[in-house]
């Protein structure tokens, strides 16, 4: 028998609109799942049940004519994102008791659209790593197999969606932090075009690399959440691209992008070494689906190469220099301290020169790929990584280098500002998800989502694919190895 969490986000909202479920009932159902499975998959740092119940009652009281497509649906907010009155630790013991007094713009947009946050999802410390294993919460684990990481820095958000604790979640992506967890957990994760979603009030000082973005089980759910997040805010430093007719959800539902020329490549951009065969196979499958839908798929050179890594590395060191009270520096993790120690050595002149060189490379890359409408490549260089693999038994420099070798594709599109989405097209022999990256032209998020929806349809749909933990009442239903497996 179907349960409320079996419905996708749009399905849950439709059930509320028809009077079959109330937001109060949806929130109660998902809070029970959070209570049973939240720590098992390491999804949440802070759960806010009372605030969620109040918000659900308020959502149920809104007249039907004033409700949007996701009204009344449970969601969650990443622990890097300011939330007034709710503990927000930025994934760090240095901020273990921090309670903001203001909301990030995206938090306000979620509330205005009638979504109900259940709490704050696990993230990496200060967003500095692609795994979410800190000191303020259990590590974010992949619900498909608990021995593996859910990724980062939006690892808790992906774990929550993949385990059916919420149907959609807000994340943020400064170097792959939405797309990496989505790929690992078998989800759709979108990094929108630069400027489309507000980073305010404090998220605009990172050279345009990070942006908020949605994580969900279907392209339509992700498009619907993007419409919620992409509300223009005065004073933003980047001019948002014009909205598509009818919104991004309408584009995803139409799934008619027109015949496109898709540039395929599998050579990594930030390292010079081969990638896992499963990741190549996933790209091959996506290319076949795109070709079957009538698109022309051609081989292209990657827009950037390994020569860009030292420049990006320098920027990442500087990005780690978020303000931390001096007396709490010792509470930071070794990797964070390593990055910050190097960041303080970068002079203003060196940083300015690095940014100029990166922009020159971005321009060259844009010219190199100007003849295609979309780019197709792997999301990651390997399908999965065990919990602890990046940092256990190695020094921070090796930890950081392992991350570079694991994710040599995503960060380039933070540099270019292009919209980029990870799609769960592939599978390993053991049934674990493998993602592919589809990237569009700047400002063309609607066509990217329409193409992603076309791929989803050609692949038989993704909403019915769940790990075994999906049906578990609690952690006792997970086998002794912590392996979830796949449901039929």
Instruction: Provide mean pLDDT, rounded.
Output: 95
Rg: 21 Å
Low-confidence stretches: 474-488
CATH superfamily assignment?
A: Amidase signature (AS) domain
For the secondary structure, the number of strands is 13
Q: What topology, given as strand order, has the largest sheet?
A: 6-8-7-12-13-11-9-10
Query: What's the CATH architecture?
Result: Alpha-Beta Complex
What is the CATH topology descriptor? Answer: Amidase signature (AS) enzymes
What's the oligomerization state?
single chain
* Helical coverage, percent range: 25-40%
Main beta-sheet annotation? 8 strands, mixed
Intertermini distance: 14 Å
Pfam family, one: Amidase
Domain Amidase: 25-449
Protein name: Amidase
GO molecular function: catalytic activity
Characterization of this structure:
Helix 9 links the parallel strand 9 and strand 10. The protein has helices spanning 9-17, 23-41, 49-60, 105-112, 155-162, 179-185, 219-229, 247-254, 277-292, 309-319, 334-343, 348-368, 396-406, 412-416, 445-458; strands at residues 44-47, 74-78, 116-121, 141-142, 145-149, 168-173, 188-191, 211-216, 261-264, 296-299, 374-378, 420-427, 433-440. The longest helix has 21 residues, at 348-368. It is globular. It is built from 15 helices and 13 strands. Helix content is 35%, strand content 14%. The chain is an alpha+beta fold and 488 residues long. The two termini are 14 Å apart. The chain has a single domain, classed as Amidase signature (AS) domain (Amidase signature (AS) enzymes, Alpha-Beta Complex), CATH 3.90.1300. An 8-stranded mixed sheet has the order 6-8-7-12-13-11-9-10, sandwiched between helices. A 3-stranded mixed sheet has the order 1-3-2, with helices on both faces. It has a two-stranded antiparallel ribbon with strand order 4-5. Helix 7 runs antiparallel to helix 8 (247-254). Residues 25-449 form the Amidase domain. This is Amidase.
């Amino acid at each position: 028998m179907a349960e409320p969490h079996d419905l996708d986000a749009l399905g849950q909202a439709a059930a509320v609109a028809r009077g079959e479920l109330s937001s109060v009932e949806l929130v109660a159902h998902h809070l029970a799942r959070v209570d049973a499975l939240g720590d098992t998959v390491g999804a949440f740092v802070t759960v806010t049940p009372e605030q969620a119940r109040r918000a659900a009652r308020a959502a149920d009281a809104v007249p039907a004519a004033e409700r949007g497509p996701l009204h009344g649906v449970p969601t969650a907010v990443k622990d890097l994102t300011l939330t007034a009155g709710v503990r927000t630790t930025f994934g760090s013991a240095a901020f273990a008791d921090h309670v903001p007094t203001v909301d990030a713009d995206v938090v306000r947009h979620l509330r205005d659209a009638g979504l109900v946050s259940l709490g704050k999802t696990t993230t990496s410390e200060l967003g500095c790593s692609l795994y979410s294993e800190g000191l303020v919460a259990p590590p974010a684990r992949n619900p498909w197999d608990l021995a593996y990481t859910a990724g980062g820095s939006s690892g808790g958000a992906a774990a929550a969606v993949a385990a059916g604790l919420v149907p959609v979640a807000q994340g943020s992506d400064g170097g792959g932090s939405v797309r990496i967890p989505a790929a690992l957990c078998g989800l759709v994760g979108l990094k929108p075009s630069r400027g489309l979603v507000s980073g305010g009030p404090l998220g605009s000082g990172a050279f345009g690399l990070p942006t908020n973005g949605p994580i969900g089980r279907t392209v339509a759910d992700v498009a619907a959440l993007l419409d919620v997040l992409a509300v223009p805010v005065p004073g933003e430093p980047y001019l948002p691209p014009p909205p598509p007719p009818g919104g991004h959800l309408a584009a995803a539902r139409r799934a008619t992008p027109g015949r496109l020329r898709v540039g395929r490549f599998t050579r990594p951009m930030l390292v010079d070494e081969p990638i896992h065969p499963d990741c190549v196979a996933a790209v091959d499958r996506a290319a076949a689906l795109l070709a079957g839908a009538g698109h022309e798929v051609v081989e292209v050179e990657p827009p950037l190469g390994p020569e860009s890594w030292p420049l990006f590395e320098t920027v990442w060191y500087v990005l780690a220099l978020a303000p931390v009270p001096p007396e709490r520096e010792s509470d930071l993790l070794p990797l964070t301290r390593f990055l910050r120690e190097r960041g303080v050595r970068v002079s203003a002149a060196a940083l300015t020169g690095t940014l100029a060189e990166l922009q020159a490379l971005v321009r060259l890359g844009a010219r190199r790929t100007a003849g295609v409408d979309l780019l197709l490549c792997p999301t990651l260089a390997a399908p999965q990584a065990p919990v602890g693999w990046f940092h256990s038994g190695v020094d921070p420099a090796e930890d950081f280098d392992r991350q570079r070798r694991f994710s040599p594709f995503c960060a380039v599109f933070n540099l270019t500002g292009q919209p980029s989405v990870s799609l769960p097209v592939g599978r390993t022999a053991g049934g674990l998800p493998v993602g592919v990256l589809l990237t569009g032209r700047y400002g063309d998020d609607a066509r990217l989502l329409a193409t992603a929806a076309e791929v989803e349809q050609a692949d038989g749909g993704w909403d019915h694919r769940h790990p075994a933990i999906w049906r578990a009442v609690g952690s006792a239903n997970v086998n002794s190895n912590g392996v979830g497996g796949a449901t039929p």
